Amino acid sequence: MTMQTQGRRHWLALMAALAFGAALSPAAARADAANWPTRPIRLVVGYAAGGATDVLARIIALKMGEQLGQAVIVDNRAGANSNVGAEMVAKAAPDGYTLYDYTIANTINATLYSKLGYDPQKDFEMIGLIAKIPNILVVNPKLPVHSVADYVRFAKASPDGVTFASSGSGSSIHLSGEMFKMQAHLNMLHVPYRGSAPAVSDLLGGQVQSMFDNTPSSLPHVKAGRLRAIAITSAQRSPLLPEVPTVAESGYPGFDVQSWFSLAAPAGTPRAVIDKLNAVLNKTLGAPDVRQRLQDLAATPEPGTPEQARAFAAAEIKRWREVVKQSGAKAD
């Protein structure tokens, strides 16, 4: 090989390296973000259509799509308590065109499953929180219980304690009950179902006695008198049920459990794209029509920064780790 040939190859390699560096420069990243998106965006939901997670995702997807100038298409990938959808997004290209509806379930799954195909923290870039929805402690009206104090007395007086249904082992509905069981030191028997609908059906029929159900699921039955609302699990009362006290004010200070939903992208997604998505999400959550639809679902919008969402998710993983371990809940 001649010196001239070697020199030419070195020169070409240097030019390629400089071009690659320019493509990765902050200026280039900003330019890419300025042009993004140029095609539709997929928003993966880890549950079937029709549930609270899906409904919330569709509300924000429509509005965000209007602002971005590209459709945000909801893609339901149900299975394994949302793990199927989460793993798909964790392995997707970090280009801003695949997003994930990251929920409380993902922080519970971090401990509930001995093995996951993704890391709930390392494999995602948090974009921002969407909303929170409280659960309601509801009982069958035939039960002689009208308050949290009554519920505790009933459980302690009964040889078999009290039964509480859930939408499945490890769900926020299940672990709301487990957390109350731990704080109140009660004999409470968990009865898991495959989804909230069959659990509520058996609660209405008297096969089970109580449930810490998601508000949108039980609210129509409470309004119709088919279920009795004893307490709400959020720190503040719900405007949809202003007469129903919180668990915290019923003798258990600090009790605050809510189902929550956030927006995330695969790890490595450019920060400029994350910031753009965060701005659009926060603007969406501030829109009057979106706020009204969320209020109808008993959901409170939670605008904020990516850093706040990441810190919140990390705290939730730690919080539910203790509850899952003490409850003995497992799912593999």
Q: Which labels suit this protein?
A:
about 325 residues; alpha/beta; D-Maltodextrin-Binding Protein, domain 2; 10-stranded mixed beta sheet; 12 helices; 10 strands; globular; TAT_signal
Estimated helix fraction = 40-55%
Q: Which geometry do the CA atoms define?
A: globular
Query: How much of the residues is beta strand, in percent?
Result: 15-25%
How many β-strands, per DSSP? 10
The count of helical stretches stands at 12
- Low-confidence spans: 11-31
Protein name: MFS transporter
Family: Belongs to the UPF0065 (bug) family.
Organism: Cupriavidus malaysiensis
Keywords: Signal
General description of the model:
Residues 1-31 form the signal peptide. Keywords: Signal. There is one protein chain. The protein is globular. Helix 7 links the parallel strand 5 and strand 6. Helix 3 (52-68) packs across helix 10 and helix 7 crosses helix 12. The protein is built from twelve helices and ten strands. With 332 residues, the chain is an alpha/beta fold.
